[in-house]
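Researcher: Re-running this chain for the archive, since the previous output was lost when a drive failed. Same request as before.
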Amino acid sequence: MAQASGSSATYEQFLDHVKQLHYVGDAGGVLQWDQQVMMPEGGTPARAKQSSALSTLHHELLTDDDLADWLDELEEADLDPEQEAVVREVRRDHERATRVPADLVERISEATSNALPVWEEAKAEDDFSKYEETLEEMVQLRREYAEAIDPDRDPYEVLFEEYEPYLGIDTAEQVLTRLREELVPLIDDIADSDVTMADPFEGTYDDDSQRAVVEAALDTLGYDWDHGRLDTAPHPFSTGTQFDARVTTRFEPEDPMGAIGSTVHEFGHATYTLGLPQEEYGTPLGDSRDLSVHESQSRFWENHVGRTRPFWDLFADTANDHLGTDATPREFYEAANEVYDDNLIRVEADELTYHMHIVLRFEIERDLIRGDLDVAEVPQVWNDKMEEYLGVRPETDAEGCLQDIHWTNGSLGYFPTYSLGSVLAAQLNHHLRADIGNVDEQVRSGEFGEIHDWLTENVHSHGARYETDDLVREATGESFTADYFLDYADAKYRDLYDC
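Model: Regenerated structure tokens:
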């Protein structure tokens, strides 16, 4: 990266500091991965203190006076576009962090670590009352956090910008409203259809068989085992860096398709992470472009590859071998795309009703943060909204408001990025197919190199150089739009269900 002579020394000092900041944050990520995957149950008290110490150190580095001075000096310097992007991203994080007291950062980190076993116990025992006080604390802490950053703005908007800083809460609300208005009639038509999707699965499937089939799926798609690993977790996730991007999944005895789908989803996240420029590790140019773009990568692989007929033409024999099934590619394809209007669980939801799950969570967490909903009311409101939006009512807290880990992690404001990512995935898929031309045949032949290369060139390689909509324009030549997703969903599912 070229250096402007007058600011070279300052920029180098600034960049060294930024790298240390990133390394501390990544170390905290490894501790979080370990707590969810491998740490013994009794380790929580120490882990809470360790995570808190790293969070405090990260906050101190981000709010350091020297960093503030360098940012001010570099604001007037003659920088190249990549340097300007680094300064822009660090300045944004610095300005938000300087408004948050260090003791609040420490309290949030410790509360998050302590919340995990509480949520796990409440979910296992199907008892929201055991989690209520913990969630109340988390909501209050996040309100304090938002108020510290900007007391004059909607606190939920401030929190949303933690995960998607550039598209804006208005865009998120418009997209979610449009999805609700345009997908519900399609879902209703599917429910009225006489067409029944195939179900190739009978009985139960042990963890070893499911692990074998998802490992085979990762092999098929090109997961880099030298820079990753597969584990199980109560709530599947991916985390890491461009040198070490790990995936997790979970196994339900009667639903191997769920394990395949969630693993391919997390593979998409990991592939994005591994595609980030290695030489820029520790800087924003080596970071992902926030969660909407990250989710677009997981949704691309899950929906626009893993749920396609060409993929099942390729993978059906492998799935049959590992699971002992005898299904045709068409039967697997139908099973992967069945629309369940009575499904209660977000991570098991189909491609269409999934977005009603997101709308529900978005509305609840927004009202919690704004003070329009009490924590004690969450189970009732959750169940009412499930019945209104999906026509099904949870009978237990475990299959209702306790199913997701996000609020336990303090991630209030996160949920809209799932739908934004799905929308962007369809837009990227349209332009990728237009550029490559024979994607279905490549998938059917197990040749994923050109797909990886297109995504790396147009999305991954840029890191966080561009703001979200600018990155979308770089990749597709146009601004972010929900048109492609809605057109794709309508065409695909009306064909499947003949409606």
